[in-house]
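Notebook, student rotation project (T.W.).
Task set for the rotation: take a protein with a known small-molecule partner, predict the structure of the complex, and write up what can be learned from the model alone. Partner molecule chosen: zinc ion. Sequence and SMILES entered below by T.W., checked by me.
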Amino acid sequence: MVAIRYEDIVKVPKALLHDHLDGGLRPATVVELAAEVGHELPTTDPEALGRWFVDAANSGSLERYLETFAHTVAVMQTAPALRRVARECALDLAADGVVYAEVRFAPEQHLEQNLTLDEVVEAVVAGFTEGAAQAAEAGTPIRIGTLLTAMRHAARSQEIAELAVRHRDTGVVGFDIAGAEAGFPPTRHLDAFEYLQRENFHFTIHAGEAFGLPSIWQAIQWCGADRLGHGVRIVDDITPGQRPVLGRLAAYVRDKRIPLELCPSSNVQTGAAASIVDHPIGLLRDLRFRVTVNTDNRLMSGTSMSREMALLVEAFGYGWKELQWFTINAMKSAFIPFDERLEIIDEVIKPAYAKLLG
Ligand SMILES: [Zn+2]
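Predicted structure of the complex:
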């Protein structure tokens, strides 16, 4: 097998379903925006700050990992700041060869300077549109869909679900809930999920990351999630061995082709997996679950889509065939209309991988 070069991974089209806007800022942008609003940072040297984010997120606990977001969210409280962060996100993903991305954020966390929820969404979508236009000019076109996240410990999910539906024709393609999993089951937000189902809208739920099977079961069987944010703990329902045996929930997830938004580096940082080599993605791929590869928080994990792919190549010996499979899985699982997904698969992804597969 010909060794896969990192620069070729960057060039090949990739699709990303799970990326947080407030987890992907450029360190230099955090420094500049913090200076504008007088927010104190652990350091104002962009390089050192980038390292600080990764180190803080490496602590192994989801709660501490979430603390790092206090700094990024603090500098994303005005329309120009949100717009800039979204524009740079689009440009960074495009430069990394991502051709389709769903980027999520929680509008309720950006109201400290009295923006309305609608103004927050409009600023972010405008930033994505601007960034995508600039990326196309630079020869690296990207399509971005926005997901609106509600915080699972809060009580605004119905409001945020309505906000998402209100903006469905102008860039918002789905809904999500996120935040500390333990103690905040997705069923707390049942009204919001039932509302979204009645509106024929799409949603994913962070479940099965820090917390195990009950969370995944609720997300799917009570809330009706289209996809699982992480869902990595589904392996707890699989008995390993020569012929692994699937429990009823794992079998259901695989039978129904429910997409798993796996985030290898992030899962290692939060302790959901011991290391990349030990990450259940290897087993889940072998068993042909609908596995997708994602970045989660590029700033906190010091990562990119290409880096996640490269880590998997290194750990599991994957080749272009597997990378194409992950990419098509993600594209099939996207929240944009079916014909538009197909167009990206047939006209962008397959031709590019065909050249590499020879
Ligand atoms: Zn996430």
